[in-house]
Design a protein that fits this description.
Blueprint: H1 11-20, E1 24-25, H2 46-55, E2 59-64, E3 68-73, H3 77-84, H4 93-105, E4 108-109, H5 110-117, H6 121-133, E5 137-140, E6 149-152, H7 153-156, H8 167-182, E7 184-185, H9 187-194, H10 198-210, E8 214-219, E9 222-227, H11 231-234, E10 245-248, H12 253-257, H13 259-265, E11 271-277, E12 280-286, E13 298-301, H14 305-310, H15 312-320, E14 332-333, E15 336-337
Helix pairs in contact: 3-8, 4-5, 4-6, 8-10, 9-10
């Protein structure tokens, strides 16, 4: 329920869900410039809403969680930026020239920066990516899909001071949100989702435990962490999740949290998306992705054998929402031709 899958958020509840799931990436394998989306979690077209929020800078794009593009509410940039920014270290001449150009002449498009500095566009792109990871530049789409206007970060967000934000506190705040979203979790899942070093995750968990924010619990014989405030809820008996299949893209919140487990389970396969069946990952959509049309080579299942035949129509129908003629075909289901 906290994931927004059982009861998708309406427009009134959407902001709280977006904030809880930050940083929110775009859907995996989407067109460049596409706004972020909480797929399957909104009861309306949140793509259009987020396009508007991006245009007026209510939400802001940045490089978080391993340098990946995602979005947060602009008023929380200090929290997420302080945790995820990567120091420039030693600057190259190209980086200095690009940054000087932006601070004195920006905002500019990449082509304009290349023209003004005399640096090749490929080198400009590399410099801009490093500067963006350090939260020294900001890429703004405005109302465009693919054209990015580049700003000096401080010129667009003068009120945000990353140096004045305590990184350790911000990290714990972010991980508390993660634990609340997952209800119970472990350090490996937190590392997978956050893309932060295990030593940082483990250290933050230890401090939160010492401060009685989180506590260890046992779930099916495995040790997990949960928020102390959630223990009364966890003590209650809850109904089983609805019988439903979700096709989850590879940047989805839950997929990222289970990344190590899913990589091991489906090792050796080219995976397009994963299947969350009855609240548990029990399958994957296999195939070779390309920009043009591409087929699903197989719907691979770890679902109990007896359930695979009974759930075939449901699972194929859900998968076909994303792969359908004339662009794609589903060739096999559980290894057998469809």
């Amino acid at each position: 329920k906290r994931q927004g899958l059982i009861e998708p958020a309406d427009e009134d509840a959407y902001e709280a869900l977006f904030r809880a799931q930050q940083p929110v990436p775009t859907v995996y394998f989407c067109e460049p410039g596409t706004p972020p989306q909480l797929r399957d979690r909104a009861a309306f077209d949140d793509l259009e809403l987020n396009r508007d929020l991006r245009e007026d800078h209510t939400i802001a794009k940045g490089r978080f969680a391993g340098g990946n593009i995602a979005y947060v509410y602009a008023d929380e940039l200090a929290r997420y930026g302080s945790v995820y920014r990567k120091s420039m270290g030693i600057w190259t001449e190209e980086e200095e020239a690009v940054y000087h150009c932006l601070t004195h002449m920006g905002p500019l498009y990449k082509e304009q920066i290349a023209e003004e500095t005399g640096i090749k566009q490929s080198a400009v792109s590399k410099a801009l990516t490093r500067l963006q990871r350090a939260f020294l530049t900001h890429a703004d789409h405005g109302d465009s899909y693919d054209e990015q206007l580049w700003y000096d970060f401080r010129s667009l967000f003068p009120e945000i001071d990353l140096e004045d934000t305590d990184r350790d506190t911000a990290l714990r705040d972010i991980l508390i949100r993660f634990i609340r979203n997952m209800v119970y979790t472990d350090e490996r899942q937190a590392k997978d989702w956050s893309r932060l070093p295990m030593r940082e995750v483990r250290g933050a968990f230890e401090i939160m435990a010492d401060r009685d924010i989180i506590t260890r619990i046992e779930v099916d014989g495995t040790e997990k962490w949960a928020l102390l405030e959630d223990l009364p809820l966890l003590a209650r008996k809850w109904p089983a999740p609805p019988h439903r299949t979700f096709v989850m893209h590879k940047a989805d919140y839950l997929v990222r949290a289970h990344e190590s487990e899913l990589k091991n389970r489906f090792a050796g396969l080219e995976i397009l998306q994963f299947l969350l069946i009855d609240g548990v990952f029990q399958g994957a959509v296999a195939g070779h992705w390309r920009i043009g049309p591409h087929d699903v080579t197989d719907i691979v299942l770890t679902l109990l054998e007896a359930e695979r035949g009974k759930r075939k129509d449901e699972i194929v129908t859900e998968t076909a929402k994303y792969y359908h003629p004339p662009y794609s075909r589903i060739l096999r289901y559980d290894g057998k031709p469809v």
